[in-house]
Amino acid sequence: MDPESCTVCKRNPGYFRREYEGKVLCKSCFRESLERKVRRTISHWDMFSPDDHVAVAVSGGKDSLSLLMILHKLWKRFPRTRITAVTVDEGIAGYREEAVDLATKYCEKLGVEHEVVSFEELYGYGLDDFLKNKQERMTACSYCGVFRRKAINLAAKRVGANKIATAHNLDDIVQTYMLNLFQGDAERFVRFSPVLKDPRGLFLTRVKPLCEIPEREVVMYGYAEDLEFQTASCPYMTEALRNELRTVLNKLELAHPGVTFSAYRAMLRLRTLAEPNLAPSHLQACKSCGEPTTFEICEACKMQGINSAIPEIPA
Ligand code: SF4
Ligand code: ZN
Ligand code: ZN
Fold first, then answer.
1. What pLDDT, in 10s, does the model give residues 268-292?
2. pLDDT digit string (tens) for 212-246?
3. CATH, domain range 45-279
4. Measuring from atom 5 of ligand 1, which residue has the nearest CA?
5. Site residues for ligand 1, CB cut-off 6 Å
């Protein structure tokens, strides 16, 4: 606990020092300020409409539970809007069960509808079993990420949602950006947007309401709200380059408060500059499962060994 008092209300003891603003905030002012920032992001990017049914991807970790909490507070003011939490059970023994239980507990507490889908149910096997039978040397996260993205889409459709909200925070987004940069993926690099919308309306819109909140603040918000979240790391966590980038970015932010925001703003600016030269997104429906893909067959189907469209049965 910071011994200084809050620079906003000048009354309560400090809870969080926001270096890049030169402020010390008490618990209550910190919570209010973070919720205000999220509301501002939502309205700036026009993320939601009053009649939306939003599927909130809730893993049971700090980011997603904080997002659920914030959106739930926000939604009390918008009674026409519906939110449903969707949780994906990847089938990682000894790890995922706790997170699913936490997600279930908070949804019950908040009175939010909750849909749990599992890899097992959707693909016929959980991640543990899938990896046992794999010969290729792709990382667990490469498979998991692709399968999970599709699982969230399927769960959102199942509950009848028209949008998906994910809890990616500022640090996640800048790390992904750097990852794309260092992996030479210029297309992805310049296409970042907190709102991914298919202009043809074929695929669900994905929004990232926490995109301007640093990871540290999301964690402190979770503590301020007394949220109990999963602290154990996934046993497959192997994204070496991302972890190194996280360490470097954390060090930079500590030494030069605000650099992560600067990088984020540059990302948005770069997208604006690149926009006139960007080819339209080639997203199309997978010939096998109908989910969005830039190829004929989506990555998830290919990973399951489906390499061509399901032949139509002649009438
Ligand atoms: Fe999946 Fe990798 Fe995340 Fe584990 S760390 S849940 S394998 S994406
Ligand atoms: Zn205060
Ligand atoms: Zn597919």
1. 998 888 878 777 667 888 899 988 8
2. 999 999 999 999 999 998 878 888 887 678 889 99
3. 3.40.50.620
4. 237
5. 90, 140-141, 144-145, 234, 236-237
